[in-house]
Automatic annotation (TrEMBL):
Entry's Gene Ontology cellular component terms: cytoplasm; Golgi membrane
Upper classification of the organism: Eukaryota, Viridiplantae, Streptophyta, Embryophyta, Tracheophyta
Entry keyword set: Glycoprotein, Membrane, Methyltransferase, Signal-anchor, Transferase, Transmembrane, Transmembrane helix
EC code: 2.1.1.-
Protein name: Methyltransferase
Main subcellular location of this protein, as a coarse class: membrane
Annotated Gene3D superfamilies: Vaccinia Virus protein VP39
Amino acid sequence: MGLLSSLRPHRRGALSGVGVGGGGQWQWSFLDAVWAVFLLAVVVFLALVFTPRRGDTLPALAGAVPPCAASEVDLLPCEDPRRSSRLSREMNYYRERHCPARGEALACLVPPPRGYRVPVSWPESLHKIWHDNMPYGKIAERKGHQGWMKQEGSYFIFPGGGTMFPDGAERYIEKLTQYVPLKSGLLRTGLDMGCGVASFGGFLLKENIITLSFAPRDSHKSQIQFALERGIPAFLLMMGTRRLPFPAQSFDFVHCSRCLIPFTAYNGSYLIEVDRLLRPGGYLIISGPPVQWKEQEKEWGELQAMTRSLCYELIIVDGNTAIWKKPAKASCLPNQNESGLDLCSTNDDPDEAWYFKLKECVSKVSLVEEIAVGSIDKWPDRLSKPSARASLMDDGANLFEADTQKWSKRVSYYKMSLGVKLGTAHIRNVMDMNAFFGGLATAVASDPVWVMNVVPAQKPLTLGVIYDRGLIGVYHDWCEPFSTYPRTYDLIHADGINSLITDPKSGKSRCDLFDVMLEMDRILRPEGTTVIRDSPDVIEKAVHVAQSIRWIAQVHDSEPESGSTEKILVATKTFWKVPLTSK
């Protein structure tokens, strides 16, 4: 029992570090030594027999983190129904993020499902993925007749349909293009609410439009996981009691296809939130309820009244699809509107959106006309030009240019000298954990990848500049788990990883490096790559953690021309499997 219990998952609060600490004196006898050698031999034997890997290199056993139980294959620490089922259902509060307290989260390695294999590469993955990587057939059973997905042999196939576009996303997009300039370069960033398996966003990619699709953890099982397995930008999220974790005036259009969001409920809080996120001159597209929907005439009338109060232009109502255009100038509020809407006070920061409660007032925003659709540069020119928002920062334009040049050199070094497989079929889904202005994403814009740019919530709120460039991202605090399924990213990059866990005011650690790297392991695909940059002492600690979580790691010097003492850890997550006896 002693050996078996030592291999069980721990709670993080029970771990005192990566290695094993000792205290007190111990007198070893000859029999003690023999017994210790015997136990070590048994551990090595079990590791070799029951933990096969595709690579030849085995991680060190000392301080190794055990695997989670096979039942935790889709572990979502902050969207766990075992916790959320006890919470209030008012405004879907129970379906929002609710993370375990520090010390309660499991400190174990999330296993892949049985039969898991390296995902189908992009762009083939848009149309099919391995069934065994996500062996969940509920959507295929319930939505197959609408063209969502179906099973064929060892694959799930995605015809491209949806509830409101059973004939396929491509035909639906063609229809929308009659009223929305989806093929002109004017529109680049979109938000798809309640996205299903994200076929709408997937088929917009060929138009050089990047759509961030979101849905909550759901009864259909893993909509967002399917989207990410396909290589489509997606995120676990619920429209509930809080602002969505994006800056104001971010998206060139917002789309809802039967998303079932009650836009005018709670004094219009949800439509007000959409207005906060929508760029001036942007488009709101709603297909399905309540647009001309039987028995929802009241809700449809309220939606029309509220959009009129916001001075949105109703472009078309075609069957159950309605399209509005947001004014490209400052809000027409305050006015004598029929919905009772008013502006927020000057104390409201519309860009603040990390655990920030929804408001029933419309945020005042600056630089409306300068960053409106039609004023901001078209794609791809907007990628390389500092927007008006960047210029609001001290020396912002120069910082923007310097950051762009720095990351161009760094990415070239990664590819040419460090063997990072950017630009190949091995890497599709990329995460930048500390994105600043999105320089890394800009440097790989011509590669067949998309990048989730994460701006830490405790750092300057630069995410608006990233959206102005035509890129996407979210706010997040890395002392908490990220809202995504396990095994969803091919490459995770952490520049200055220690700054992600350090309080910027006190300089003290808010959480442990171990916690952050364990979370990176959860969301990284087997055989995926991590790149971590920091000072030599931080990288030394990261190497120890990497060994404990079975990564194969190498440490490199930074770019020769940089003159920096910074070190770079490049690591590969090994492809290990759960022992057949695991339960």
